[in-house]
Structures are given as C-alpha cells and as structure tokens.
Model the fold of this input.
Amino acid sequence: MDRRRRPQVEQRNGAHQYMQNLRGVNTNTLFIGYTMIQGTVDPNTPGVYNNPSTAVFTFNGTSCADHFIEYFHFQKATSPHLEPAMIRRVARWIIEDFRAERRLLPDYVIVLRDQVRDEMQPTVGGG
Done:
C-alpha cells in the first residue's frame, strides 16, 4: 500500500474546485488571456514609431479544448490602451472561431488579463 501524501493544493475561497470543473478536454469553457506590451517612440525621430505596442490574445478556440491560438494586434506606441471597439471586435471573432471549431457556443467565458502595471490599472477595470 502506497502511503505517500499528495501535495495539498492551496485553495482560495473554493476557487480551485470551481475552476477544475471548467478545465479539461470534456468541458465547454472558452479561456481568453490577453496582455498589452507598450511600444517605444524614439525622441530623435519624431513621428516614427520604432516599436509598436502589441496586444497578444491567447484562446482555446480550436477543436481540441487544451490547444491555444494566439492573435497579435499592433498599434501606435503612443496609444496607452486598447480601444473598447477593438476589444469587442476581437472577442466577437474569438467566439465565432470557437463556435466554428466546436459547433456550439461556450458555456463559460473566462478572461484573464496579465501584466498590468500600476499606471495601467485605470485602463483595465474600475480601478
């Protein structure tokens, strides 16, 4: 008989149990993660955007639930946030792609926002 202890998973307000029912190949949950990487503008060349800002969207919109796709959106480095209309357009495209691959709409949509710096908090939510 094997008496090794399994590692205890840290649980926060029951979130672990809730999330484990949403993950896996037999679930119908759409996960969308996105991050915004700010570009740079060279002060020596005004009006030239050397490195654009990049938004990276990652989602599990393939026919296999545990495979993820990435979509990149580039914009001028002087724009500190994503336009709400662009986010809605990408979200609509992601959901349509999910439905086309899986033949149904997701039961749940979970959006994860990564790498939010202190000065960017107001662009993310009620903060």
